[in-house]
Amino acid sequence: YKSGNKKSAFQDLDETIRGNTSSVEAYYCRGILYLSEKEKKKALADFKAVKNLNPNSEQNPSIRSLDQFIEQAKN
User: Quick check: 9 pLDDT over 90?
Assistant: First the structure.
């Protein structure tokens, strides 16, 4: 994603989620990608999946902005 190849990033994240449906980081990252592509419904679905996995921000420091991203996806 950082190299600008969003298509490849989506493919990698989709594959990760298929292999590990409890990957908080994969759902979170894919949600951010969807949000960057203005696909708010898909982003919100991924962020809700993260919430449903009951992550702990101490164990998953990358998700500290989850609530902010959820609000962005709702608006």
Answer: yes
DSSP string across 1-68: -TTS-HHHHHHHHHHHHHH-TT-HHHHHHHHHHHHHTT-HHHHHHHHHHHHHT---TTT-GGGTTHHH
The token pair at 25 is 């980081």
Query: Does the structure show a pLDDT above 80 at 4?
Result: no
Indicate the length of the chain as a whole number: 75
Please give the structure tokens belonging to residue 69: 């991203």
Q: Residue 43: which of 72, 12, 5 has the closest Cα?
A: 72
**The model's pTM:** 0.87
Radius of gyration, CA atoms only, the chain? 12
Is residue 51 exposed (0-12), middle (13-18) or buried (19+ Cβ within 10 Å)? Answer: middle
Q: What's the pLDDT tens digit per position in 24-44?
A: 999 999 999 999 999 999 999
